[in-house]
Amino acid sequence: MSTLSPLPQNPLFDPLDMNNYRVEKLKKAEKEGFEKWMERLGGPLAILSFILIYFFADISFLNQINTSVLSEESAKRLQAAGMENFSRINYAMLGIFTASIILWITESIPSYLTSMIVVIAMVLTGVTSEKLAYAQLGHPVMWLNILSFVLASMLVTTRVAKRFALWFVLRFGKNATWIFISFIVINVVLSVFISATTAKATILLPIFMVIAAIYGATCDKRNNFGRNIVLQNLFQINIGASGFITGSGANLLAGSIMAGAMGTSMFGFQDWFFAAFPLCILLIIIGWQIGTRVIFPMKKEERLPSISGGMERLRSEYESLGRMTINEFKSIGIFVIVLTLWATDKQHGISQTAVAFLGAVVALLPGIGVVKWNDVDIPWHLMLFSAGAYTLGAGLDETDLPALLIDALFNRFGITASTPFWVLYLGMTFLMLFSAILFQSKTMRALIFVPMAIGIAQKFGYPVMSLAFPVALLIEHVYVLPFNSKPAALLYTTNHYSMSDSFKFGFTMMVISWIMIILWGETMLRYLGYTVHGVFF
């Protein structure tokens, strides 16, 4: 039997104190090497790419204008400007798109600032009108994002989310295996309640950091338990969100795009859930087994607590919350009603945004609600970033640039109407999934690849959902490198794993996920009527 002994550490640092792991106390990872060079070169490259495309490029397919896709407003602008001048809008759109992608990937300037530049650039170059560009801040998905943060703040402020996570770990986390199972359940449950993946990471980080310390892993002493507990939570935070259309704003945006292509008002919670949730659970279980048994197998001693009294400290943290308050019960009641209405949207026809509006109004109502506006944590920099991304999407829609690019690429590589469906399916799912290694934004990937999949499906006469939905199910795979998502950047600062560690686990899970989405297209998605042709058969 092993003896429990405290880890060597700074005497002023208590590894079991949850306050030591608050986000503001974590050291921000400094960029170095390739990332630093990307940051320095991103700005000049973005400016140069825009100038070359807008002022000097002569690309034949950009000189085409598909009048059938133009809005009434664009048609009027075409008539006023003339065909030749109006075609410059295609060059402006491609230039802005290219420059914005460079800035978002390299992070030369903050993401929200890139979005603000995108909005004004689209107005000044005439890609969209001021009305359309500025209106994206009022997009229904933007409202749903804001309202979801109100509801999430309700759970955080009343400490319901923290109470649930601590209770579950204390109740079921009796050994290393059950610790990992507990976090699987906690992450999936929180994904139903909280649509912001960063908020989930912030809530759970202090808890799994204390547990890592209990099992011998600290910021100064890595072991495979620590690598697994942090990387598994990163994976589960993101993949848990993929099981629900309300799991993130990017999911909701993809649902909105697909609904528009199908001519319906909304894509239902149930439609997404029945297709996505089983896949979400399978991937999480596979990730748990691959991580803990294959990539970072834990030695026997790493599966045993190394600090005595560790779980007791978590218990004291739980007990310090006291008895459940009336506001906690109210929070649970409001969210249960919101979730019930979301889950039954097909029956009553009320949109997810309208349901969230009702929930947020009740939560903020004086005397009845449970949270005040000053307690609501809305990351407005993320809202501005999203508004810029949606404006970019509106510009792509106005110019029909994705369709022009698709036609040009297909002509270049000789892809014709006789191309089998499986080639298109494999190509689109591959691009969507592995693009996450380069892109920082789920929203951007949704805006680029979901419309592209819709355009390809329409070009080849396949149902819109046969390509668009499998692509949408891959939005949340943003866990390979620290800059791939906000939770990835946040958890990297824990110093429990290296970039090569996250790449080994993350890239392996991406390959497995690609295989799974292929199998899913041939089985579940085919059974539900989305991939009516099947992938291979």
Distance between the termini: 56 Å
User: Whole-number average pLDDT?
Assistant: 83
Number of strands: 0
SS-derived structural category: mainly alpha
Ranges where pLDDT stays below 50 over 5 or more residues in a row are 1-9
Large-scale geometry: globular
* Radius of gyration over all CA atoms, rounded: 24 Å
Q: What order do the helices and strands follow?
A: HHHHHHHHHHHHHHHHHHHHHHHH
Report the major sheet. none
Approximate strand percentage: under 5%
Total of DSSP H or I helical runs spanning 4+ residues = 24
Helix content: 55-70%
Summarize the structure.
This protein is mainly α and 537 residues long.
Give structural notes:
There is one protein chain. Helix 4 packs parallel to helix 17. Helices cover 66% and strands 0% of the residues. The chain is mainly α. Among the domains are: 18-28 and 142-375, no CATH class; 31-135 and 380-397, no CATH class. It is globular and about 70 Å long.
